[in-house]
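Known limitations

Files may contain more than one protein. Parsers should not assume a single record per file. Below, a two-record file is shown to illustrate correct handling: read the sequence, read the token line, then continue until end of file.
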Amino acid sequence: MKVKNITNPIFKDLKNHRLINIKNLVEFNDKTRDKKIKSYKDIKTGVIFLKDYKRGLKYYTSKKTNRTFKKNLSYSNFTINKKILKTSNLNDDLRRYNQFKTIIKNKIVLDYGCGKGNFLKYSKNSVKKIYGVEVNKKLLINLSKKYNVQDSLDKFNNLSFDVITCFHVLEHLPNQIFLLKMLLKKLKKKGTLIIEVPSAHDKLLTVSNLKEFRDFTMWSEHLILHTSQSLKKFIKLAGGKKINIKFYQRYNLANHFGWLIDRLPGGHDFNNIPNNLNRLYQNYLSKIKKTDTLIAIIKK
């Protein structure tokens, strides 16, 4: 197909490093959940990317959350078909702490893009020291009251880290190979970099008539949905060598039933499915490599 006027900077990296071929591109979706931005997919490599780049640093420094908080739970508010829908968010920060606590134990850790700082909170008693990077001005002010959090990696001039985490941040950024290179440079010898991103392998993205899911999943903030191959290639181009890519499923069977039956998010809020069945389903998707999430663990 003919593609022109693509402003997404990732397009050049994908093309230059043969992760996509213009001849293999098809239109994946005609919009994102919040804007009229097209997305394309390479039918051979599976990489999915946005046509346009609309969300720069200025947007993230002043962005207001669409989340509401009640006790230890948070909820996101979406407008779908002119109706406001409220769904609970997964406690990913607690899950990540439990998932990686043996890696971060007694280590000097940096969480790049730490958001509200919940991963810092869960980890602080297990690590030797913990730091963060967060560009949002309001979040940064609040975080700085409790932690050493800066708005730039450059502010940690004389520090290096045993472990650096970067959870669902990379997909927002236009210069991903450069960032990965900078993160790897800040690692100590034998350090570990952990990257988590949304995945182009997501099983629901293969359901051809489930446009509602594509309309919701594609987002102006997410410039790319990586495949395991494209993520590994970007890391290698940044200088990473010992790379382990894991397929991880965040959302459960109940959530998928919500999409398939009601064509709406939030199925996990109405969970009549036993936890062990949800886990079996999530493990099955990991086994067949059709998960909503990719996790890269890079050893220096």
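...continuing to the second record:
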Amino acid sequence: MTNEHVLDRALGAYLGFACGDALGATVEFMTPKQIHKHYGVHQDIIGGGWLNLEAGQVTDDTQMSLALGQAIIDHQDWNIQAVADNFVTWLESNPPDIGNTCRRGIIRYRDSGELFGLPREDDAGNGACMRNLPVVLATLNRPDLFRIWSLQQSHITHNNPLSDAATLTLGLIVKHLITLGDSDACQQESDALINQYNQFSYTPYLGKASAYIVDTVQTVLHYFFNTDSFESCLIATVNQGGDADTTGALAGMLAGAKYGVQQIPERWLNQLDAAIVVNILRQTTALIKTTHI
């Protein structure tokens, strides 16, 4: 693909991610029945939810991604301590939400200087997977660094084989979509993950959308592979409820990379926090340039 196509798909992924975050946050922790009762079909970025957000406000998913992306841009390379330092700065900025596992890992680093936690069974949440898009964008042409950087940033807070495998798989799917637009390669990555850890199988889809990485990935892949547009993918995903800001963000990332930024509904882009949009536009261009260094 041309550089123009790559930028279109990369912007689609990052802006789609933020749209999914903002759309899903409204119905986070709700069940599909509760969502239907309150909203019918939830399809507009209106804020509210348990966090009482402003319309267009994003949560930890997008904020941590931006913190990670900024560390790469500032150093024009990889500096894992800078990534961790940015996470500490973010933690201390009084964010609207932060997962317990993320909080624990960031505080461990802040208080002890330990960059990586030991493997833990209860690290199998989605908090590392949700913030890895900047690594994907910065390593589009450097597959060896993609794996190293992804796992290092993950292990600041999440050190678990299931979390690791999911983070790498979704990252590779996004890479295929941005660089080649290859849906077959995406299915192959999904199949490889399920062959390695069969608990990720999403056929039949069981309807669980919690922050447990298996539930998250099942939900995202099910709706990504069974919808035919950015909008239908995102609406179906967030109306499943559960950890809807993260499932929405990750589904938006995949669908945005597949369909491109032009297919993201204008009503969603216009509703997003303007400062977040500007930051994502700036970061996406800068991160893609990093991949050629």
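Parsers that stop after the first record will miss the second one. For reference, the second record is described as follows. The mean pLDDT is 96.
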